[in-house]
Amino acid sequence: MKATQQLRDEHEGVKIMLSVLGQVCQQLEATGNMNPEHLEGILEFLKIFVDKCHHGKEEELLFPALVAVGVPEDGPIAVMLHEHEMGRNLVKAMSTAFAGYMTGSISSSKAVLQNAHGYISLLRDHIEKENNVLFVMADSRLSEQRQDELFEGFEKIEEDRIGVGKHEEFHGLLKKLSGIYLD
Ligand SMILES: [Fe+2]
Ligand SMILES: [Fe+2]
Fold first, then answer.
1. Which pTM value belongs to this model?
2. What CATH number does domain 3-181 carry, 3.40.190.290, 3.40.1570.10, 1.20.120.520, 3.10.310.30?
């Protein structure tokens, strides 16, 4: 499998989780309540699977490989890095708001919704740009051998950051939550 294909596959998983988050928000908006365990699971998925693992693969391996074949650092790559940072801040703000929601604060509940909506639209748009622009660029400029090396590096990041068992756990969570919210 191409390294970029692994990232595209992960994007599909992330998009499903964004839809789940959208449904949790809709419930919160309509009833003032949600299942806190579910939001906790989603936040962990966003922090570990999306940020540490997926964004780690892009930031530490893919982007530098693109710079090495002449893609300017201050072009699309800078935009992607900035969006990762914005996403990180929104997840942090969502976590803080979620802690407030657990104490019964109504303003915190609104902040959960606001940050979640911001994150969902940011990430959806970000994924489209990577799939349709950056990864297309990568596929045309990186040799097969370079893609293979990246793929191996991705496996290593995954093992180091989350461990093999944890990866399966995240897939299980995705399956469980999409069964509850998206069927
Ligand atoms: Fe990204
Ligand atoms: Fe990505």
1. 0.96
2. 1.20.120.520
